[in-house]
Write a structure and sequence with these properties.
3 helices; globular; 131 residues; alpha+beta
Length: 131
């Protein structure tokens, strides 16, 4: 990991390209990262804006949808995808590494265990555990 301390990680039995696709494809992100909350990624490159709309669900206390503007910080194919929440200047980073047991996905964020479990299930073709 270049510059960030990993707080959570998961091993995924799958192809690193499939994991990368699940991290950077807006339709797949909506399936595992706060399932049902849509993403708009017009252009996958550093400096570009993305929009994430967090929808009310059993895991948050929202009464209405919460749109968030994000700026892509780093896109290193099959290695790192990171972005900042514009409102909080908070950096969220996912780093991939190929290992004997599969693909290790690390994030600098705490409390992402459910999201990482969802990512693993999506890539491995299993049912999403936390919807």
């Amino acid at each position: 990991m270049d510059h960030l301390e990993a707080n959570s990680f998961i091993m995924i039995d799958g192809d690193i390209e499939a994991v990368w696709d699940a991290l950077t494809n807006e339709d797949k992100l909506a399936k595992w990262y706060a399932p049902g909350s849509p993403w708009k990624i017009p252009k996958l490159q550093a400096g570009e804006k993305m929009l994430f709309t967090l929808m009310p669900n059993v895991h948050n206390n929202l009464k209405e949808k919460l749109p968030m503007s994000l700026t892509i910080e780093k896109v290193a194919y099959c290695r790192e995808f990171s972005f900042k929440m514009d409102s909080h200047e908070m950096l969220i980073s996912f780093v991939l590494g190929k290992e004997k047991q599969g693909v290790k996905v690390s994030t600098n964020m705490e409390g992402y265990d459910m999201s990482l479990a969802n990512l693993k299930a999506l890539v491995e073709g299993k049912e999403i555990p936390y919807s």
